[in-house]
UniProtKB/TrEMBL annotation:
The lineage of its organism: Bacteria, Pseudomonadati, Pseudomonadota, Alphaproteobacteria, Rhodobacterales. This is Ribosome hibernation promoting factor. The keyword Ribosomal protein does not apply. GO terms for biological process: negative regulation of translational elongation. SUPFAM superfamilies: Ribosome binding protein Y (YfiA homologue). HAMAP family: HPF. The keyword Cytoplasm applies.
Length: 191
């Protein structure tokens, strides 16, 4: 597994890098099969150190965790514990569903655009009052099942996930509702 360990405006020593590789490698070997790489970023926010880790699995799914503490090693340990918990839950779900993906997840591209306001509409409203809609970044859209989309959303700690449904090839959305449940938007079923 490839590791990319870096610090945002702080120096990361060899001892910390060795510790991260050993501890995170142990967690990944325990729960994940064939991880491809891991990105670990340390930063400092006020008086606390923050550790953010993302592990890319060979199935195309990503697991993310974040930990913070007053010491850099303690911040990593908090992050490692969260990653351990996420990967353990992921492995349990895979085992419970008896679903084994034989091929890696396919990704489509998603572009970002800046949409400028138009002159059409109510003339009493100034053009400067109309907001500019901006897509923040380009992203890859995975081609996965609904269950895998929910799992990916929870692993990455996201509030929503856009994906291409493997069942029919249409674009779908899963999201976390305010009541804690999962919502699923499938435009194909809205006819």
């Amino acid at each position: 597994m490839r590791y990319q360990i870096s610090g945002k405006q702080i120096d990361i020593g060899e001892a910390l890098q060795t510790h991260v590789k050993a501890e995170l490698g142990e967690v990944v070997e325990k729960y994940a099969q064939r991880p491809t790489d891991a990105v670990i970023v340390f930063s400092k926010a006020a008086h606390e150190f923050v550790c953010e880790a993302t592990i890319h699995l060979s199935t195309g799914l990503n697991a993310s965790a974040k930990g913070s503490a007053s010491e850099v090693y303690a911040a990593f340990e908090a992050c490692r514990e969260k990653m351990d918990k996420q990967l353990r839950r992921h492995k349990r779900r895979l085992r419970d569903h008896h679903h084994k993906r034989t091929a890696p997840v396919e990704f489509d591209g998603g572009s970002s655009y800046i949409l400028a306001p138009t002159d059409e509409g109510d003339e009493s409203q100034a053009i400067s009052d109309q907001p500019i809609v901006i897509a923040e970044m380009e992203t890859k859209i995975p081609s996965i099942t609904v269950g895998e989309a929910v799992m990916q959303m929870e692993l990455a700690g996201q509030k929503m996930l856009v994906f291409r449904n493997e069942g029919h090839g249409g674009v779908n959305v899963v999201y976390r509702r305010d009541d804690g449940n999962i919502g699923w938007i499938d435009p194909r079923n809205s006819k």
